[in-house]
Amino acid sequence: MALNAFSEYGEHARKAGDPWVHLLVEQDFEAPAALRDLSAARLHVEARLLRSRNRHKDDYNPGVHAAQFQIFFTVQNLNRNSPGFGDALWFGIPIYDNRHRFVPAFKEQDFGGTSRFIFTPDGKTFSAASSHDGEWVTIDQDLLPLMRQALATAWTRGFLKRSKDSADYSIGGMNMGWELPGTFDVEMQIRKLSLKATVMQIR
Questions:
Q1: Is residue 195 part of a domain?
Q2: How far is residue 119's CA from residue 116's CA, in Å, rounded to a whole number?
Q3: Residue 148's CB: how many other CB atoms inside 10 A?
Q4: Is residue 128 part of a domain?
Q5: Torsion angle defined by CA atoms of residues 67, 75, 154 and 129, in that order, rounded to the nearest 10 degrees
């Protein structure tokens, strides 16, 4: 997945509050099981940064400009009989951020437009290797405990108020790719992407 933000922004860097360039692939999952009924949700993905070139001149501000590659899953209320049907949080897996070898945890409201709660664990949660080195980075991890923690944190912070029943929430879908609020030319290679949810056996 490659994106040349210089072609979008040109000589003038994006200003705070302006929209920014995205390149995302996404998928909704068909009839996912509730988190309560899962025993595991194992993510496997391998990623390699091929290129990240900062095209700013004297106008780079790391508080405003960045190159980020992430995977997000929705933890979403898909129970049509629930008053909170449709409510969701974003669960993030950080792959690359030009400002950090390992992306710090982020557990706050999304101010990019959805107003949903974002729960992104620290990058070291997923791998001891950094994508900054340009080598293959492998993530192979059960996300289920972290997603349950994300729900609990969201409820504590006052989000998803209309239902606090884990039986209402499922992994609703995903998106993956670049967000470039900065003027960067970037390229990431992805292989062996899968999320395998295991339903508990009822005896």
A1: no
A2: 10
A3: 17
A4: yes
A5: -40
- If 0-12 CB within 10 Å is exposed, 13-18 middle and 19+ buried, where does residue 192 land? exposed
CATH number of domain containing 35: 2.60.120
Q: What is the mean pLDDT of residues 188-192?
A: 98
- Residue range of the domain that includes 111: 2-187
In whole angstroms, give the CA distance from residue 184 to residue 3: 8
Burial of 131 per CB tally in 10 Å (0-12, 13-18, 19+): buried
What is the spatial distance between Cα 135 and Cα 116, in angstroms, rounded to a whole number? 33
Residue 107 located in a structural domain: yes
Q: What is the DSSP letter of 35?
A: G
**177 membership: H or E segment, kind and range:** strand 169-180
What is the domain count for the chain? 1
pLDDT in tens, 138-188: 999 999 999 999 999 999 999 999 999 999 999 999 999 999 999 999 999
**pLDDT at 202 exceeding the cut of 70:** no
Q: Is residue 198 part of a domain?
A: no
Stretch 77-101: mean pLDDT, rounded?
97
